[in-house]
Amino acid sequence: MVSRRSFRYAPRPVTGRETTLDTLAVGDDAEVTAVQGPGGIAVRLLEMGFVAGTRVRLVKVAPLGDPLELRIRGYHLSLRRAEAAHVRVRR
Amino acid sequence: MSDSILRVALAGNPNVGKTSLFNVLTGSRHRVGNYSGVTVECLEGELSRRLRGDGPPMRLIDLPGIYSLSPTSEDERAAYELLAGEQRPDVVLLVIDASNLARNLYLALQLLELGVPLVLALNMVDVARDAGLQVEPRELADELGVPVIPTVARSGEGAEAIVEAVRRAGAAAGAEPVLVPPGPDDEALREALEGLGSLPPVRARTVLLGHLAGVAGPGEPGRWLDGQPAERMRAAAEQLVSARYRRVDAILERLGVRERMSREAPAMSRSERIDRVLTHRVLGLLIFVAVMAFVFVSIFSWADPVMGLIEDAFGWLSGLVSDVLGPGLLTSLVTDGLIAGVGNVVVFVPQIALLFLFIGLLEDSGYLARAAFLLDRLMSRLGLHGRAFIPLLSGYACAIPAILGTRTISSVKDRLVTILMIPFMSCSARLPIYTLVIGALFVSHEPVFSTGIDQGLVLLGMYLLSTVSALAMGFVYKRTILASPTPPLVLELPPYRLPRVRDTLLMVIDRVGDFLRGAGTVILACTVVLWALLSFPADRTGAGEGGPTRVAQSYGGKLAQGLEPALEPIGQDWRVGVGIIGSFAAREVLVSTLGLVYGMEADDDDPAELRQALREQVDPDTGEPQHTPLSGLALMVFFVYACQCMSTLAVVRRETGGWRWPAFMFVSMTGLAYVAALLVFQGGRLLGLG
Ligand SMILES: Nc1nc2c(ncn2[C@@H]2O[C@H](COP(=O)(O)OP(=O)(O)OP(=O)(O)O)[C@@H](O)[C@H]2O)c(=O)[nH]1
């Protein structure tokens, strides 16, 4: 049996120096504060290392404007902007 | 555990050198096994004789690369089921990248939770050593409580020690699960684990993450979670993952490499410099186009001479057999049925081998991930992963290798969408048909530009039509029968590495062998059936060579004549009908089958005679030419859409594990082809063309 139900979620407003990962500029370093978004993506992001307190850097934007290249936990990972928008960070 | 063979599964993150280590351990004898249906394929092989020595045999299974055991993607679900299910292996050999422990150890913790006998291969110690990132294997082993063996899979260093450690782990009594406990502040997690207390602790953790992802762990859904506040359970899941990563960091801290490991993987700083060019805004795209052009042109042109040689060789063999056996039905069966059938299979090998050689080299070097990075924007518009691009492009050369190439796409539905799109791409086998029809019928006395340019434009039109149709069909399938959300990208960009030719060649051999076994038999059988259709009823004299009347009286000929009422509205007659039936063996056979129907010695290289015959044939009722540019256009459009290729269907059956999808493909494509040809012919007539 596979339950297809997933959690509903309401994005919290972004406040203060907090922002989302997709709004960083190339070369910016930031610290992850929370992961939001639909459950499937949230679990994926968490397990790839986006847990609160982790440093992340926006390395590059793909030539067509999307996706992004990020560095986290010593490796490079590519996320689409839409996915990166689920990661809240503090500069 | 029915026998004394030790079953060992190789697990690990993608790109840590699992397959390289597998090759080192097994030598070269392996086969591609299929687990859990169509999605996941695993290599399987026996321990090489050299490493085995006098010890008991060992069977190794190479699992797909995974980042975690939470069942959130198909690969991970399959890996979880294999590692934790009924047929769990005796020992799990986890391969980790010594230069990138900060991420790799997460999976190690999950395997420890599972409580399977575990041996760690600390691979790529050469890379770590060069970067001064020494990790003492003994210290890591003490931290984790499992044996840790340093290896360099590329050179085979450490293989003997691995075999020894795995044997010892297999002989020991099973392992106890080692759980990461909730931290002092992780109240939500504590509460959730208590609520799920009826499940074994490992299962509770899997279910918690699986439930948040919308897929409960296999077997038992966590009913209790349904009643809980969503935000609370979300926090619990977050705390679980955080606790595991805290444990990873604590281990790295004690090994004295935490700072360095979380900064930059040593191999990445060079890669970043390479990427300044290869994923550069302008240069990156230009280089990508150049690489793809190179791959594409080589599949098109390098394979061609080899395919010619193969065809010649089989032709020579046929000639030899008919000389020895003399004319007769048996000879015909052997030459036109069996030998031609084997030839029809083998002829694909050069293209398949070339495509996989390129895919293998691109993948191993790390460029394939960059290609997906560059192209994802375009492919995600369709709803597909950037990885679908290369198989689709290869479809222009030949659908067979292209369909086999979709194995790099991990979502089943997206893989099916791509497989269904590929046969719409105009493959190289359609080219002889286009050139025959264009050469025969598009020779106007008043060309718009010049005859050459006009003909070129018609040809270009066919390629455009096929491309647009493939994209449109993909768009439709992705939103209807195979609807699924665009898969998240979450794509690792691994460090660039020099590919290893030996490993790539092994992979090419695996793929080719897989094709010959899996699809070859069906192709052979179809060739014989088609031969029978066009050869029976045999004439009593038993003359070996077919002729126009003989074909007309064959079952195939009768079938085509019966189909004439359906062929007429699309501007064709029964002769072309025979060609269409015959060309099911392979599209380019249309030319030789038509040659047979028109009673001439088929000569693929110079079908001038055939062009003449097509041009001059008149409709017996009206006295008008039977074939016009309009009917020619309708025929070409038919071939743009029709799935006139038994080999494609055979490969799709092999890849999807049944006849359902090939049947769907054949029926839908033939239907579409007929409707499109009908629209062209009837529409053209309404407009007063033809
Ligand atoms: N320097 C070095 N390179 C290695 C070592 N082991 C593997 N490689 C290289 O790393 C790359 C990836 O190796 P694979 O064996 O394909 O990795 P994998 O884990 O099977 O990857 P997936 O098939 O994507 O799961 C290849 O280019 C290998 O040649 C090693 O110990 N040292």
A few lines on this structure:
The complex is a heterodimer of chains A (91) and B (690). Chain A is an alpha+beta fold and 91 residues long. Chain A is built from 2 helices and 6 strands; from the N terminus they run ββαβββαβ.
Q: Mean pLDDT of chain B, as a whole number?
A: 81
| Secondary-structure element series of chain A | EEHEEEHE
Strand order of the largest sheet of chain A: 1-6-2-3-4-5
Number of domains of chain A: 1
Tally of individual helices of chain A: 2
The DSSP helix count of chain B reads 34
Sheet with the most strands, sense and barrel status of chain A: 6 strands, antiparallel
Query: Portion of residues in helices of chain A?
Result: 10-25%
Give the overall shape of chain A.
globular
Give me the CATH superfamily of chain A: Ferrous iron transport protein A (FeoA)
Mean pLDDT level of chain A: 83
Please describe what this structure looks like.
The complex is a heterodimer of chains A (91) and B (690). By secondary structure, chain A is an alpha+beta fold. Chain A has a single domain, classed as SH3 type barrels, CATH 2.30.30. Chain A contains two helices and six strands. In chain A, strands 1-6-2-3-4-5 form a six-stranded antiparallel beta sheet. The N and C termini of chain A lie far apart (43 Å). The radius of gyration of chain B is 30 Å and the shape is elongated. Mean pLDDT of chain B is 81; it is low at 34-39, 540-546 and 601-605. At the A-B interface, α1, β3 and β5 of A face α4, α9, α11, α12 and α13 of B. Guanosine-5'-triphosphate is lined by residues 12, 14-20, 65, 123-124, 126-127, 152-154, 364, 497, 499-500 of chain B.
Which features characterize this protein?
heterodimer, A: 91 residues, alpha+beta, SH3 type barrels, six-stranded antiparallel β-sheet, 2 helices, 6 strands, disordered N terminus, B: 690 residues, alpha/beta, Rossmann fold, 4 domains, seven-stranded mixed β-sheet, 61% helix, 6% strand, elongated, binds guanosine-5'-triphosphate
